[in-house]
Design brief:
Helix content: under 10%
Distance between the termini: 80 Å
Number of strands: 26
Number of helices: 4
Largest sheet: 4 strands, antiparallel
Structural class: mainly beta
Oligomer: single chain
Strand content: 35-45%
Length: 379
């Protein structure tokens, strides 16, 4: 009798897996009014080289540009130290050792509010810290209690945001769930005055209709605009989504690519394809998707990365062809610039805004420098 029970239980499991192994018939279709212009946002001849030395990574996971009285500073968090470089004069002007916040790994991040206030997020500890300008911890916020549903990754594409006394952190844990619904939050709102931590925001409706592989399509990309709105770019949606700093939904705007026709869902997860890393990558590379989003405060526009299918991948690193969409906050899409010749060397997840325009790091053979290429917007 015991064998029979085990046999029946095995049959139930096999049937359950078989019932969810078929491919979803849901398809994300692009029916919006995209832009046919590809010249308004253009790659200039300017090249910016920043000498970082041997200790600092040429591909920083957490970085920020701030304005100083004598120019712009490029800040990098590396090995528990924030390095401040003069972007215009190519020099290291300051460094600050981060203490009493634990080891800061690749998914940790920071934002400098002013010379007396710094926010540090430690991914491993699941904690947010408020520091003064001398690296003294003023307060600690335990965001790890929400980690089962929201697991922030303070990367360049989803940095620590701060607006009107509220910190925004975004990211979700790796999940095999085939559908993500209204109860699946993507961000935390942290009030640094009273310590209140509130989860909020959610994936776009596409994620409740279909399964998109569970990893690469679940990256959160966000930015902050001049009106204090948190702007989200989800890989499977042709739209962007705006929330207030309490993570209450405001509106959505179409910001799709003219190169994107349809995004087909992945097969629903089973034990086998959950373990198939190469299979997940092949699926991601076979489809269009969307990536980083940035707000340009100098020109009052959003920039969004649109990623396109890549064929011929046989393993190792990959870089999808991509284009850059520029749009005004009222929804008018200005331009979409295809990136063809530099697609493998430009780091499409690292967008930064300067007074001159949009800069993107470019890989080189010299690991002691960070090279930026400049994209300018025609007046």
């Amino acid at each position: 009798m015991k064998f029979n029970y085990l046999y029946i239980a095995a049959l139930i499991i096999i049937c359950a897996l078989s019932s969810c192994s078929g491919k979803s018939d849901f398809v994300v279709r692009n029916s919006g009014q995209f832009s046919n212009d590809s010249t308004t946002l253009y790659l200039s001849d300017s090249i910016i080289d920043l000498t970082i030395g041997e200790r600092v990574s040429p591909v920083p996971n957490s970085a920020q540009i701030i304005e100083a009285e004598d120019g712009e500073r490029f800040l990098i968090l590396d090995e528990n130290t924030i390095y401040s470089f003069d972007l215009e004069n190519d020099s290291l002007v300051a460094s600050l050792k981060i203490k009493n916040c634990g080891g800061l790994n690749d998914f940790s991040g920071f934002t400098v509010l002013n010379q007396d206030s710094i926010l540090i997020y430690n991914y491993a500890r699941g904690a947010l810290y408020l520091l003064n300008g001398q690296s003294k911890v003023l307060n600690e916020f335990p965001v790890n209690k929400f980690r089962e549903s929201v697991s922030p990754e303070a990367l360049v594409s989803s940095p620590v945001l701060f607006t009107d006394g509220i910190v925004i952190l975004s990211g979700v844990p790796i999940s095999s769930k085939s559908r993500l619904g209204e109860d699946d939050n993507v961000s935390l709102s942290v009030n640094i005055a009273d310590g209140t931590i509130t989860p909020g925001a959610r994936f776009s409706n596409e994620y409740s209709e279909g399964f998109f592989g569970g990893v690469y399509y679940n990256f959160i990309n966000h930015c902050l605009d001049n009106d204090g709105r948190i702007v989200f770019s989800f890989p499977a949606s042709n739209y962007i989504y705006r929330y207030n700093n309490k993570l209450e939904f405001i509106d959505s705007l179409y910001m799709g690519s003219r190169y994107t026709g349809e995004i087909e869902c992945a097969p629903d997860p089973t034990i086998l394809n959950m373990r198939d890393k190469d299979g997940r990558i092949q699926y991601f590379l076979s489809q269009d998707s969307y990536g980083s989003i940035k707000y340009d405060k100098y020109r009052n526009v959003y920039y969004r990365v649109a990623e396109h299918p890549l064929s011929g991948w046989t393993g190792g690193k990959f870089s999808k062809p991509f284009s850059l969409i520029a749009m005004k906050p009222d929804g008018e899409i200005i331009s979409e610039t295809p990136i063809i010749s530099d697609k493998e060397s430009l780091l499409r997840f690292s967008l930064f805004i300067t007074r001159e325009g949009l800069i993107i790091p470019q890989t080189t053979n010299n690991e002691n420098i960070i090279r930026f290429r400049l994209f300018k917007l025609h007046e």
